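Task: encode each sequence below as structure tokens.

Item 1
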Amino acid sequence: MYFLTGWPRRLLCPLRSEEEPFHIQPSSQRFYFAVLSETQLSIWFSRPSVLIVSYIESAKAAAQFGFYQKAEWKPDDSMIAVATAKGYILLFDVLGGGDDKYLYEPVYPRGSTRVKVTPGYKEEQCAPALSLEMKKPVDLEAPITSLQSLQEDLLVCTADGYLHVLHWDGLGSNGRKAICLTTIPFSLDLQSARGGPSLDLEGVYIRCMEYCLTLDGFAVVLSDGRLGFITPLSNTITADQLQGVWAADVTDGTCVAVNNKYRLMAFGCASGSVLVYMIDTTTGSMQLSHKLELTPKHYPDTYNKTGPVKLICWSPDYSVAMVTWERGGLSLWSVFGAHLICTLGEDFAYRSDGTKKDPIKISSMSWGAEGYHLWVLPNKQERRRQEEQQQQQHQQQQEEGVVEEEEEEMVTPPPSSLQAGILQFHFIKSALTVNPCTSNQEQVLLHGEDRLYLTCGDPTQVNNTSDTHPHTHLHPHDGSPLHHSPNPDSSLSQGLSTLLGHKHWHVVQIHSTYLESNWPIRFAAIDTAGQCMAVAGRRGFAHYSLFTRKWKLFGNITQEQNMTVTGGLAWWNDFVVVACYNFIDQQEQLRLYQRSTNLDNAFASVTKLHSDTLLLNVFRDMVILFRADCSICLYSIERRNDSPHPTASVELLQEVSMSRYIPHPALVVSVTLTSVRTETGITLKAPQQACMAESIMLNLAGQLIMLQRDRSGPQVREKETPANSKKLLPFCPPVVLAQCVENVWTTCRSNKKKRHLLEALWLSCGEAGMKVWLPLFPRDHRKPHSFLSRRIMLPFHINIYPLAVLFEDALVLGATNETVLYDGLQGSSEPLEALFPYCTVERTSQIYLHHILRQLLVRNLGEQALMLAQSCASLPYFPHVMELMVHVVLEEEATSREPIPDPLLPTVAKFITEFPLFLQTIVHCARKTEYALWNYLFAAVGNPKDLFEECLMAQDLDTAASYLIILQNMEVPAVSRQHATLLFNTALEQGKWDLCRHMIRFLKAIGSGEMETPPPTPTTQEPSSTGGFEFFRNRSISLSQSADSIATGKFNLQKTFSMPSGPSVKGRDVECAENMYIDMMLWRHARHLLEQVRLRDLGCFSAQLGFELIGWLCRERNRVARIEDFVSALKRLHKDFLWPFPVIPVGSLSSPLKNGRCRTVLSTRLLKSQSADSLLNSDMDTAPPQAAPTNHTWLDGLGQRAKDIDTASSAHSNQHSPQTHDAFLSLLTNKVEEYSVGSATDLTETSSVVDGDWTMVDENSSTLSLSQAELEHISMELANKGPHKSQVQLRYLLHVFTEAGCLEWCVVIGLILRDANVIKQVIGFLDSPEVPQETVQSVRSGLLAVDTWASTDCLGYKPFLNLIQPQLQLLMDSAIGEQVQPEAFQPISQSSKLGGSEGLGGAAVPRAEDSRGVAAPLGLALPSLEPTGGFSRPPSEDCPPEQTEEQGDEEGAYDCTLS
């Protein structure tokens, strides 16, 4: 509604005076302010804020009259009345200084376009020169307590109990009446006035009085603290014609302010609260509407220590009230009690170091024009105190000798710095306060005195947001990420983030040329798309488009100055609709201006109106006007494209007189056409009517009144009547829908899926929160129930002040004041900037769906709630809505002290089971509530064990993991271990590696949680029993018994041990057992994968979980690591690694390239085009998406290995110079006779090297010249190769199997890679006496089977099989009659061959499980701790030494290993 912005400004009075100003009174238009000090009357101008004239009383007159006390303006600003201490009224004439007398004039640069054409133009923007002349004083002979100006009269209350009526003009004896208060009869209401109890008013006088125009009476506070309201029964004010009513039970009134628009009287009380009364129209009695008071919830320190209310000020548009107390502070409330700002808390009241500031005490305050400023006079004592503090500080500084001669001038406070300071607070306000048109309701539009704040466009305009600090000077920027979502958990779609996420505004500066002659801005409007704005000031109007970022002003300034907007602005498509008064024709008009044409009356369509327009609104193609004669007019608008410029034609449809129902036209706050109706049954039969203008909503002083079309008469079928002669139905008599309404939102859009939300009516009701008038629809397949053809009014509370409702998105948008402290500015005296924080306005939003669903469930309308929820289930924050609903109900019911007769939680739980989110919602809600409430929650929703199993069945493993935490806190460790094991196995099977890692940690934590006491100093590898589970959002896992004291813990925990162990057993044993248990599960899974020939999954599993694949394969070499069927294994690898089966070139089977020279260069070249990063970041296909950011791939953790191992092992590092590669590659080249450098470079060259360096591989041949046949061959080679990633993975697996001695697998991978070297090596190994006979037999028969299969099914393999024919022959020959002894496999003699293999295929990528180990310098022998059945390698220079399995284990192969 209204929001503070920036710092207050201090206005200094140029006149030196000892006197302090203590009273400020605005003129009727608030362009002038009368400021009183003891003997001085000054007049200030509003813009620029300058002193115009000051009248200083002579000492002699001051002695006669006494000091000045109060002032009041005549309504036409021509006179001022001042009350003095000795009972005199002094009247001053305010005289203008003639035509050319201006104090201040704007100076334009030469050649400026601003020509002074119109006669009244100049004074619009100049501060006029005024003078004051005192007329004859009037002596009332008693102290004056209150002044009140009427049209022709001045009412003065005196302390002797009289009410004086003075004429402004004829101030002789004839113009003066005195009415004694005791002669006015006071009663509790007007009906019992003649005979009822009356107040005894002996010795009582009126302390404070204010006239209310729309109630036609005076709100008074009597000297005994009673509150009253005095009504004149006739037009003249005479003693026998006055009648009073008083409010029962109040005796501590201090001041009063009336609200003319809403017919409210706000009385301040000595208790510090403000009582807001209304007059009951039937009985005439005073009824309490609501209270404005600080709540102990938000202001625990100050809510009852404010002292009595000192002043209440309603804003010029009557939508907010500012309150200040005797002990200082300012607080702002909306008209029906929504609290907006208070300076008694937070940054206003405390410095950044926590010390309390003194609240500023205020002696008088007043709103400026249109409510953009609040003019405040600080208290006299406040100033004196500041002055004394400064003098003390100054003296101290002088005593300490701090001040040097030159600086003394600066340190002494100049007298003016504390003189006659007026503080000006700046406000920005919602456009709805004065121009509540429909398009302003779906966009948040705020306007300050010179700028507009808007939300950054509609959801489709994602990039149109701004990304700067939310201070007053914002600049539009392009899109920024989501800074702040209204609820930390809601995951938002990108489209909605513009509406939700940003705190920042799009700020549009209003054109200065328009502003300087037409300040203040009175109306502002934005179109429904949020792309065009229009503003209207004193005269004319201007509009702005976000597309062009330009303002359009009237080209002809005379046209601008000849019209003034009276009833507001609205957008209709691309037309601005304006209700204005034309000064030349002296008549009201309705005008439409097209956005794209120049702003000129020549392009406007003008309709004459018969009466002044007060309000204007647009609904579809209709304009609705509310006029000063209390009638409502409906016009239709039609776009005409016949002329060169599009125009609009306007036609009167209907007039509705409301004078019977509206006592005063100024009471109507807003008027809206809607398609809302009470009988939803009709809308079901004829849904096309949902778009029609069905009813009028009037906000009459906070009462929402609805006029529906009367369909009771004979209905004409629409087809029979021609379109143009269609007569509109009359309206029924009005019905009151709600009280205390500040704003109404409705939409003309329709959407079959979200009918509940789009056909509802939304109301904002001040402190009562919001209300929604929701339609209730029957299910589609049923007849409408008679009781269901209605609507229901549901109230709900929200934490923000609502400014816009997004109907489809189920969101309320608002704004809130934020503050920024700048304490560093403290000097010798605290400047304003240190007293007040810097205020900013931030956008906020709130979800309301859960409130409505809950209200429907409470009222047993579960079916409606279900329909509504299903229509919104696609919203990105729908899961959050569900959680909120469970959470709020749970907190209320579980913490209630009395038993709840009809608990809602079971109903809510049952409701949520209708949605697939059920399991997730419950567990998220439980995790966010405290443990004490869990039993209550799960009693309603079901046993967590069952819910866990449901998650497993639904394959929702992440939710199941969350349930595990619940189980771990609610059940004994054995149960949670059992469930964790289930989940672990499922996660392994599905390849959810992140989850697997967390489960390993979790299982270990359960083990360590069973020890008697946690280890005293946990080593680096040991997770302490509570903590370090990032997966569980840093929630510490409590031990299985809930928080028993440590002393008794020993005995309690022994019972829950899952292993038979005495109290003396060390925690290490438990941990070993736990690790053994986990290892068994990992081994079982690996065996399972290998049995199913899922090599890719196996590699992924090993890399992701740090599984020691080589050690395990060594143990399983003669068991599960055998291959039964080579052909099916080969086929399976082709499928898993997306590797194409080789094809034969059509021409011939023989390769044109005898040595693989060309192939080498090419594969190297190909690899260089792919950088290492792409390899490392591309995740395995099987890995879950969550794992992506952790970068776990086959080469898991390579970066942690020291760089001083051979270059071959550091495929990860990108820093190699080309020379390093050069040396390395040439070394290989010289060593291997029939080389295929591709196999090595596949791994090393993945680092991103400059593209030009590739020729270095080909040292032995100077140039490359390729024939046609060679090119064909290269393309064939490419076609026969799989993806680069698969190639790297296969090479890695080959290395692993070679290490582990699983020769059959080496053969299969060698075949798929078609790498003759591999086959050659393996067959070489087979000669060794240590290889078991069945392995040799298996390889032999496997190769024969492949050969047979290739001959029939896959001829592409034939060339390769021919290439390795010599080796195959060798193998066949060796089979004859040779006996091999099955000894331990220790191939010492083959060291050079092994080294070669590692150089080619192996060492280029170190094993994942060793990568975290400490790297040894090249060539050092490491102690080998191989498991039995392993083989030890000699440290040969050819292969970089690698840590063995046990060592990798010790050094932390898991994230959370045993020690």
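Item 2
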Amino acid sequence: MDWKICFMLCLVGIITLPNDTDSAGFSNVDSVSIHENLDRAETMVTLSPTCYSWTTCRVLDNDCCTRDSGCQSCYKNENCDHEYRTCSSCSKTFGDAMFVVNANKQINKSECVDCLSGGTYYNVTVECSGVAGYSSNPVSQTIRVSVYSDTEQSFTFSGGDSINVFQNSSGEGSVIATLNVNYIENSQDEDRLTYRLESGPGPAWITGHTLFAMNPSNGHISVRKSLADEFSYDAFNMTVCIKDRRHPDYCRTLHITLWACFQTPNCTDQNIPELWDTHGIAGHSDNTSLFQMIYPEPTYHFPNFRNTWSKLTWTLDNGGFVEADIDSDTGDIYLTRNISIWPAWPSKHYTMTVTVANSESCYTTTCQMDVEVFYTNWPPTICSINGTGSHTSLHEDTDSETLLHELQVCDYNYDRPSDLLEVGKVNGIEDNSTCWIEHVYDQWGENDMELFTLREDDPSYTNKWDSYRLYKKECIVPSSPYKPPCGYKRENYTCPKHMGCMTHNVTQSYSVSIICRDGYGESDNRNFTFNVNSNQAPTYLNLPNEIIVDMNAASEHDIIFSTLYRDAENENLTYEYSFTKADDLSSVGYFKADPSGNYFDSLGNITLTQFLKYEPKNSTYLIHICGHERRNEICEYLTVHFHDNCGPSPSCTSHTFPTNTELTPGTQLFDVSSLVTDPSSFTSLQYSLTAKNMDLFQIDATSGAITTTQTLPASYPSTTYSLNAFVTDKLSCTAYAVCPLTLVVNYINYDLTITNLPDSVNIHEDEKTELTLFTVQTTDNNTDDSVTCLITNEEDNKPFFIEETYSGSDVWVVKNYVAGTNEERQLSAIKQTYTLNIDCHDTFGAGESKNLTITVTPNEGPTLTTLNTGVVIDQSVVFSGAVLLTETATDPERDTLNYTCTVSDTNNPLTCAIDGSLVEIKLRRNVSIVTENGRSDSIEVCVGDAKHPNHYCAHLNVTFNTTHTHPTITNLPFIQDVNENAAVGLTLFTLTIGDVDVPLETHTIQWSVSPATATSYFNVEVQSDGDTSTGVVTLLRSLDFESLSKYTLTFTVNDGYLSSLQSYILVLNVTNVNEGNTITATKTSITFKETAKVGRIFDFGLQCLDEDHEEALTFSIIGGNHMDYFVLNTTNRKIYLAKEWDLEGSDNLPSTDSLTVQCEDAGGLSSTVELTFNIVDVNEHPPSVACTLPNGNTCPSTLSEMKFELKSDSSITDSLLTVTCAEPDGCNFDCVGNGLCKKYFRLVPKTTRKRSTGASSADLKLKQELDFNYNKEFVITIKISDLNDPPKFTGVSLLINYTATPPSPTPAVTSNCVTCSSQGRVLVGVLTVECIIAGLLVLHLVYHFGIRPRFRSQKTLVSPANIRRRALSNNGAKNATLNQRSSQIKAETTFSQRMERKTAYESSSSDSDSDSSSGTEVMAARPSPGRDNSRNNPVPFRPVYSSSVPSNRRFNGNETSARLQSSTGLPPPVYSTARLPGQLEM
């Protein structure tokens, strides 16, 4: 068999080796794998083969020994020491030449390039044999070598496919992206990736520079050129490909956005240390600015564009300060509404965070705004009383309690429901008020606190602010049994003061001072003026008068006269009469009269007491009639003639007169003379009239004609008036006739007419508010008639309605509905005309209908006015954000406009900004001067409103065309050496400016120096000769090598339009000359409080100046009495407090101390400065407080637990609690809180030391006696403050439990006085009448026995004044007293004197009335307001007499008047100018 075939059969197991070699082999290594990219020589596997081995040895052959006797020859050869051992050598017997087996029994791949291919395999047969010193059989094995394929490569960019590159953090050469290749680590893969830039990145649009590059060795993308001159928003695309030798290219695109962070914004922390809340400010502006942003302009910015901030955007985290907001455009922090920090008190702190960004910022910046808002206690205002005072008036006869004014207290601390923590609970009230009357001064300066009262309707309801009401008190005179209790003749027509009563002639006005105080002590004081209206005096209608009585016919009980009068208050009169004979004024008994009467149906009648036929003939008598009501008295004379013969008595008939309301005032209604029977038989007829409506009628006393005084009112269908006409004749004596008259006034209803229709009005279809479109004007001669209007065709006119302006106004207006979602009532352009039929009629249906036409004006769409044009823009002077054109659309209705802007492509630099009705066409980005010159773009703008979307469109075409180039500096960069002793003013360098623009433009050089603090050392000035420009760099300050040895000046040049594309550098190297030191302090004295903590920093601003800056400087404290209390930090040169400075401590530290601080340089030179510390003594503890209860017990040690019981019988003088403070100078004591303490309690300080401004203790007392009928709990806080500034204070909270005492029945009181019971008063009255009767009997006896008064002769009649003078002569002593008192009143000057005199007057005024039956005393009347003495001693009214009394019967001149006044204290009467009594016209 061929050996090769045998070998193969053995490999597959068909042929097996002998048994003794079964265990030989290659340790189960039968295959290996290699990478197809393995080019180098590589050991694939190291073999460990084993071979079967043995040795040959001689052994005794027992069989041979048996056969042969010579044992030594009985040996044979056998295999021994046989086992498996490592083969000595191997060799390849089969396989590709690239695989070899070396002496180390390793299968190696030889070096070759691209000799492998993935997916193939190779068989390598290896034979191993030989074991040294042994015999062995060879072994062989085939190893399978498999070639696996390379994996296809891909990659991603390290930052993703889109990255942002920031100018301020990406320097030249910095790597901005790397490739993450999905490479599988394999040591056999010898493929080398290749990196290729397929496309990009493209030039920068401003400079044209290629800014980014790819490293072909590793694919890293880095910054190729400085980004310092580039601008934001530029975008670049770089397509990168990788390739290996087995696969096609794999490519990916990186999108780069350049962010040039030149304008990273900044802002400054600010604080408002003291801001008061504005809660409740009337008219407060919502946009009141709190903070305006503080931020410096950018110190460096891209020079090609602008050196100001681009648009900043501000946002605010208000930190809980909800009333604040920020203007996102300006950064102003403003108030959106009034500030309220309640319930925080006394202040509240807010920290707001402002974040600022802009469109060109890579980052945002934040700053803090600290606000400390203090609680504002706004003073209350009595807003219902204006600043000049409010007023009202009442009639002086108002006796009942009367509401004068409802107080409205306005307090800005309590004007919205959110101010309540818990609605309805006392502790939820932010503030409250307590009001009271401070004083009440009348016009004379007297205080009458008893006339008014100010009270709360419900004191327990403390939430109600308007609960105070001002009342005039009820007039109560305890000593008076009458109703009304005062003001009549018996009281001299006055009412006593201080009892709630008023007298106009005493006081006409009062000023009521009202104070309202809130819970924090603020108050308002307003004056309320109260005027007293006087009672109008009545007037007689038929007095003075004279009548004739027929003695033959007159008899007892005949009415001879009825008194007629008129009174504004319609009061009844009380009459007093005197009946005298005319010649001697002696009293007569022929007459009696009614004591009272009214003015229309119960007249005061005078009747006869006897039959007169046998009395003296033809005599004349005077009846003095005085009638008084509550405040006034009027007196007149009635002259009565007794004749023994009289003429006939008149008689008349009744009559009815019909008329209507059209009767003209002044029209005659009746002729009473025509109703008299046989009027020619009478000599002199007189006519008078009574009626319940006397103000409507008048009668001619001579002719009897009754006429109207005004239009006669009537009700539908008619009104009847009853009149009584009296007819008298002078010779008819007392007989008269009454003519009953009836007037029937028919009501005439006139037709109502509409005066201003037909008419037409317009309304816009977009109207959203209710408007008064038309006011219907009507006329109706019936002034008391009402008007009702309605739309009769309402179904056809649903958007409109008609209504009365207010109930009873009779004014009707047409309005439009606010339709909302009700489509039936909505206006639209669909129906533009409405015709309203308006019917107006009066109460009785009389009226008319007319039409009103309403035209609906339709909404019109907006239009553009400026666009549809073209503009040319020079992009060298117009940059991003610039406004190219402003368009204001017009809309007749001023509707909210909607703009849409459309551009042709995303690279279009145009955009629009919409602000309300304005739209601005702006540059979205800068337009490149290099690459985009000549480009043209357009933008379409459409405008519409809600009803006309995109109603009008227009275009703007923009062409960009620059006319300028960038200037340069041609002789930089450069390095210049300068000696540090160079003279100021030396020209250091001259810049050469290159610019091809013609004509020569004006150049400016922007420059900076590094370090920036050296700016003041140099000056750069541009000089021009007309053809070229240069920049001259000049030295302004001396240089110092030790301070700085190198200055770097950076320049850019601008020609007024463009800046240079790059910056230019000039380096100035300063050469050295050698120099000493001076220590300084910006301040040499610092003041601090002794309470300063250890570690407190004192910054004196220590500086040590050494021209040789390289020398080391050492700071130290070298002197001072208390150096151990301070430590100097040599790094920051600040001094720290090492120990607490206690002025009261055992070290006896002074309040002023000093230190000596030294600065020493390395050469031993030094300088010193003296520093002074001023230490302020501080009161470190709040006042200590103790309290004592009334029983002498001390309060609990824990004052917060202090509480005690308050009895209902506690007096305002009782000390409820004594609070003591231990401060040597005393303390201030006060109540704080919601006002309950100040309302019900008071603190009465007690000062124990002379010259002390404070008090050592204070008693808590009641401010007013508590009369609650229920238990009540008070929680109050007492604030005890020391007298320091600022004060330290301690608060003591008290819980006071008020216990009400239930009312107990009051037992009846048994009176021991006679007049205290009704029976006693009756007894006293009976005895008094009997005494009067006895006195009259005595007088009658005296008169009867001839003791009569002497009269003057009959030639001179005795006047009533003379008789009154005699009647009052017994009062001479009293007269003298009164005169003396009058003189005393004039001399009084002090208030106390006036009060004493006032008391004396009131006690004596009760004696002013006397018996009216005598007919001889002038009645006291009311004083005149104009008299000087009317304030406290009112003078009675003077009786008014007619001049019909003969002059010889009047009071005689000054003598009689003086006597009368001296005897009565009253002025003499004044007579009217009527006819004299007793003078008859026959």
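Check on item 2: The chain has nine helices and 95 strands. The CA atoms of residues 741 and 1020 lie 120 Å apart.
End of task.
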